[in-house]
Amino acid sequence: QQGLRTAVEEALRLPFTVYGADGSRLATGFVNGGPIDLEQGFYRVVVDGAPARTFARVEVVGEADVELRLD
Q1: Beta strand 53-60 pairing with 25-30
Q2: Contact at 8 Å (CB) between 61 and 42?
Q3: Strands 25-30 and 41-47: what pairing?
Q4: What is the Cα Rg of the chain in Å?
Q5: What is the pTM of this model?
Q6: At residue 6, what are phi and psi to the nearest 5 degrees?
Q7: Strand 53-60 vs strand 41-47: parallel, antiparallel, or unpaired?
Q8: Which position has the higher pLDDT, 9 or 46?
């Protein structure tokens, strides 16, 4: 039963991609997954889903954490 629960949870995880200013793909991850380390700057983040959600200008400042909300 625990194996089935884990499989369903993993299937429902939303992947995301982080793009740099030049459009290059810099990192990928999962919503509510581990953190992604990025240098200070502005990024575009696309969360896959139906529909996909795009955060066009996400600013990373110094060592601060950035949290995006999917409301």
Answers
A1: unpaired
A2: no
A3: unpaired
A4: 14
A5: 0.81
A6: -65, -40
A7: antiparallel
A8: 46
Q: How do residues 31-58 score in pLDDT, each as one tens digit?
A: 989 899 999 999 999 999 889 999 999 9
Asked if the peptide bond before residue 51 counts as cis, ω within 30 degrees of 0, the response is yes
Nearest to 26 by CA among 14, 12, 41: 41
What's the confidence (pLDDT) of residue 11? 63
- Rounded Cα distance between 27 and 20, Å, is 9
* The amino acid at 57: R
Residues 6+ apart with CB under 8 A from 54: 44, 45, 46, 47
Which pLDDT belongs to residue 48?
Answer: 94
